[in-house]
Write a structure and sequence with these properties.
hydrolase activity, 28 strands, eleven-stranded mixed beta sheet, about 775 residues, Stationary-phase Survival Protein Sure Homolog, Chain: A, SurE-like_Pase/nucleotidase, 19 helices
Length: about 775
């Protein structure tokens, strides 16, 4: 590359510009052509200014020995000065009596034509950090890069955050080599929409082995008063180089502000005192804002000893959507850290079925030596060590995940009630279809009436706004039994088949709620404890374990939907009703995948239409409920759980490829419902770039072959799969999850290909919600 280097600290000086020479040498050693234009003296804190009304005059600098102040400045270029050494073949830099922004203009358009086009402008390394808005807004280093950006050139502002006034050549050399690698990486991987990058490198031993993180700029303010202190008019002041050196030494090294001093009282009193002012910003404001700010910003990252890379637009705004760790090619020296695993894993499930399969999946897909199992985050060697948590929702450490968004991966989103609560799901779909009438959801989700009810005696009031349901029930009163429309009642927050009933009249609905009313008025009302946790609330059943009722006052939220009749019935299953259990993986913000290996879960008894007088169709829910938790013996019952792709090939009334057609429907509906929640119900479904979640999504197929979305379940009961299909379905699902969600996040293996889906995981939605996964 042909790189133009500018700065705001001027030519090499151990006092005020100690890093520029080392960076230029490192860039040249890496094979780059380097052209240098610098201010002839210290120009810090000048931003993107130009000095208007003054002619800019260049001088010519010949660098001397690295880290020694023995370079020479000349009035004319080499060969034009009397006494020039004709054999001199070293570098010659241009110094101009202006600002960093002017250096960029002059370097881009008035010199170096013989070296070819300039590919990149590097401004720096600055003598001190330029993290947070307070430093950045005044920085001549960032101002120089900003000038290059508005001239249409890619630019990087580079700053070294030192903690010691001893400028160790070894530490500086490591920082320079590290900076060159990072400059090369950013140039080759320039993100769309970025005009310039602000890079802050801690000047500490081992910086090349510390993490490099994308950051956002901390928005802070001066809070302690003026950045100038008044001095006596007769007092002498330091030159710009010495003054900047004093500011940086006291501010960076000690982290303490220069105390503002009031002027001494004058002998004569006047309305206005004559005084001079000296630039003396209070660095304590910056350090305090970093300590009080949210972890992950540029100031915090540098404080933690890591390199900060802040993508910027040429309008002083960071570029959204770029975050996470930058993984440079390894040039680490051998050491004890080489024995550390690539990531740490915590698998902590209450279900032994899930625990063993997830541990097995991690072992198989990550390989030996790449991961190490720990039992607690306290076992991590450092809080920022890469870690994957697969835990029960209540035990997930979301605070750790939020504070370490580039190194901590969790197996659940914090908020997703827009999908997993039935009344919220109904609202999600209804709102989406209202705005998008052509949505696939319009033909694959039954319109639902939702209402709240504490006790049966208040049913009339609850139905006042459920006018579609009320009209249907009133219409049923005029129809013969065989023509009445049946409805299915579901509790909004129940699971495992609890609280599901069928009805076709208001009296029938009232009888259901009267059946569930508590025996005593002393029953405490549910305070919806845990509702914010998003876990489905398990209602307290009556003493009869086979009743599968609920306590109305403990649930409150109910939905009623038209009952799907007749469902698709398979001759091979003795005409038992079934639903399809689909496993769906949502990753980051937001990709959605459907696992191809689906299940068919069958009711315990052959189906009879509700209202069939020759059967006990309504009272015997075993003919209508397909949830195996409702059945004695559960998934162990013969024929209660089958592989979807092994269902009947030929079904009367359906095409030979009916299973593939159904799978396509399921994929389309799944992608659409996640988009509806993510875009239309953002308060109740909030994605995270460092999280994923597995959902159990249920569909019922009617006799025409149309798939109807029933519900979505967080933390689905994987054990319903049973022992026979355990490894084939759930085991493969977990292994695919590791490939698609875990490995790409940590940059392991062939991660890039997996995020686009696999043969077993079809990508059905890629929403890109403004946060990089």
């Amino acid at each position: 590359m042909h790189i133009l280097v500018v700065n705001d600290d001027g030519p090499p000086s151990n006092q005020s510009s100690p890093y520029i020479h080392s960076l230029v040498v490192s860039l040249q050693s890496a094979g780059h052509t380097v052209s240098v234009v610098l201010p002839h003296q210290q120009r810090s804190w000048i931003g993107k200014a130009h000095l208007v009304g003054a002619a800019v005059k260049p001088t010519y600098f010949r660098p001397g020995t690295l880290h020694k102040d023995d370079g020479t400045t000349h009035e004319l270029p080499h060969g034009m000065n009397e006494g020039d050494d004709e054999e001199y073949d070293g570098d010659e830099w241009i110094l101009v009596d202006s600002t960093p922004a002017s250096c960029v203009q002059i370097g881009l358009y008035h010199y170096f034509e013989d070296r070819g086009p300039i590919d990149l402008v590097v401004s720096g390394p600055n003598y001190g950090r330029n993290s947070t808005a307070l430093f950045a807004m005044s920085s001549g280093t960032i101002g120089g890069a900003m000038e290059a950006a508005v001239c249409g050139k890619r630019a990087i502002a580079l700053s070294y955050a030192f903690s010691s006034r001893q400028h160790d050549p070894i530490v500086i050399a490591e920082a320079s080599r590290h900076s060159v690698r990072l400059i090369e990486y950013l140039h080759e991987n320039w993100a769309e929409g970025v005009d310039l990058y602000s890079v802050n490198v801690p000047l500490e031993p081992g910086v090349s082995e510390a993490k490099v993180l994308y950051t956002q700029m901390l928005d802070n303010r001066w809070s302690s008063g003026s950045c100038f202190k008044a001095v006596e008019a007769s007092a002498s002041t330091d030159g710009p180089s010495a003054h900047e050196h004093k500011l940086r030494e006291e501010g960076e090294g000690a982290g303490k502000a220069l105390a503002a001093e009031g002027s001494k009282p004058s002998i004569k009193r006047s309305r206005i005192q004559h005084k001079h002012f000296e630039w003396a910003p209070n660095f304590t404001d910056v350090y305090r804002s970093v300590d009080e700010g949210t972890p992950g910003n540029d100031g915090w990252v540098v404080k933690e000893g890591m390199t900060s890379v802040t993508p910027l637009k040429a309008n002083f705004m960071h570029t959204p959507g770029i975050e996470g760790e930058i993984k440079l090619s390894c040039s680490c020296r051998p050491g004890p850290d080489n024995n550390e695993p690539t990531l740490y894993t915590i698998v902590d499930s209450d279900n032994p079925y899930v625990q063993s399969l997830m541990e097995q999946a991690l072992q198989r897909r990550l390989g030996a030596g790449q991961s190490r199992t720990i039992s607690s985050l306290a076992d991590l060697p450092s809080p920022s060590a890469p870690v994957f948590q697969y835990r029960e929702y209540e035990r997930l450490d979301f605070e750790h995940a939020m504070m370490h968004s580039s190194s901590s991966l969790a197996n659940a989103y914090i908020i997703r009630k827009a999908l997993i609560r039935k009344h919220y799901l109904s609202n999600t779909v209804t709102n989406w279809v209202t705005k998008h009438p052509d949505s696939v959801l319009a033909k694959h989700f039954k319109f639902a009436c939702d209402f709240e009810l504490d006790y049966a005696e208040f049913l009339d009031d609850a139905l006042l706004e459920a006018y579609e349901l009320r009209e249907s029930l009133e219409r049923n009163e005029t129809l013969p039994e065989s023509e009445k429309e049946w409805w299915i009642l579901k509790a909004g927050m129940s699971d495992r088949g609890n609280g599901i009933r069928l009805f076709n009249s208001e009296d029938g609905l009232r009888e259901i709620f009267e059946e569930w009313d508590p025996d005593s008025d002393d029953e405490e009302e549910d305070d919806e404890e845990g509702s914010d946790s998003e876990r489905p609330t398990k209602p307290e059943d009556d003493d009869d374990d086979n009743d599968h009722g609920v306590v109305t006052s403990q649930l409150r939220h109910f939905i009623a939907q038209p009952y799907i009749d007749p469902p698709l019935l398979l001759p091979s299953a003795a005409n038992r009703k079934f639903h399809i259990r689909t496993y769906v993986l949502a990753v980051g913000s937001l990709k959605v995948y459907v696992f191809r290996e689906m299940l068919a879960l069958f009711a315990a008894k052959p189906y009879c239409a509700p209202g069939d007088e020759e059967s006990d169709g309504v009272t015997d829910l075993a003919r209508h409920l397909t949830n195996t938790c409702f059945q004695d013996g559960g998934s162990a019952n013969e024929g209660s759980v089958r592989r979807y792709w092994q269902l009947d090939e030929a079904v009367p009334g359906l095409a030979p490829d009916w299973k593939e057609t159904l799978f396509d429907q399921i994929c389309a509906v799944t992608g659409e419902v996640f988009e509806a929640a993510a875009r239309g119900m953002m308060v109740h479904f909030q994605t995270l770039p460092n999280a994923f979640e597995l959902f159990g999504v249920d569909f019922l197929v009617d006799h025409t072959g149309n798939a109807w979305l029933l519900e979505l379940n967080a933390y689905p009961d994987f054990a319903q799969t049973g022992e026979e299909l355990k490894d084939l379905v759930v085991g493969r699902l977990f292994e695919e999850t590791v490939d698609v969600a875990v490995k790409p996040f940590f940059g392991l293996g062939e991660a890039a290909a997996a995020v686009n889906g696999t043969d077993s995981m079809r990508l059905v939605a890629d929403l890109g919600l403004g946060r990089k996964d």
